[in-house]
Amino acid sequence: MISSKSKTSHLDGNAIIAQLIKGEMSILDKVYDHYKPEYLKWAEKKYPGLNPEDFLDSWHDAIIAFYEQVAANKLKSIQYELKTYLFTIGYRILIRKHKKMQEIIDDEYIDTQMSIESMEYFTATEDLSEERKDLLLNAINELPPQSKQVLMLRFIEGKSLKDISQILNYGSLNVLSATISRSLKRLKENIKMNLEL
Length: 197
Fold this sequence. Notes:
By secondary structure, the chain is mostly helical. The chain has two domains: 13-105, Rna Polymerase Sigma Factor, Chain: A (Orthogonal Bundle), CATH 1.10.1740; 115-196, Winged helix-like DNA-binding domain superfamily/Winged helix DNA-binding domain (Arc Repressor Mutant, subunit A, Orthogonal Bundle), CATH 1.10.10. Helix content is 71%, strand content 0%. It has helices at 13-21, 26-46, 52-71, 82-106, 108-113, 120-123, 130-141, 145-156, 161-167, 173-196. α2 crosses α3 and α8 crosses α10.
C-alpha cells in the first residue's frame, strides 16, 4: 500500500478503499500526507494567484470528499490512479472557489451595497452610514459565537492564522482557514438576507 519509495510513488486506490470500508481510518492520514506535497506544487502551478491556504483547504476537502464517498458506498473501486482521482476532486474545489471569488469581486451589487471585500468595512465603521453599520452589526450578531470570534480576531484585530490557532486552540491551520472561509460566507449570506427584508 504505502511504499517506502519516493513521496510520489503511487498508492493502490482499491486497497485503500477496502481498508476504509473495514474502518481503518489511519490509512486516510497516510494518503493525505503521501500526496499533499505534490498536490500543493501542482495546485500552485494551476492557480498561481490564489492564497496558498486555499490549496491546503482544497486538499483537505478533497480527502474528506473521497472518504465521504467511500463511507456512503458511492465509491467501491476506481479504475485509475488514486492520485488522479484526488487531484481531480481538489481541482474542482479550486475551480469552484476561484469562480466564487470572481463572482464576489465582479458582483457590483455586493460591492456597492456592502463593500465587504474591503477591510474598511470592518474597521472604519465611523465612515459607514448608520443603516450600513446596523446592517453589518446585525449580520455579525447573527453568526454563531465561534464564527464571530474568528472573524473579529482575523479582521478587526488583524491576527495571523497562526496566532488565532493558538488563541482558540485549533490543531490545524487548514481547519481554521476553512472556518474563516465558512464564517465569511455565512456573514455574506446574513447581510444579503437582511438587505432583502
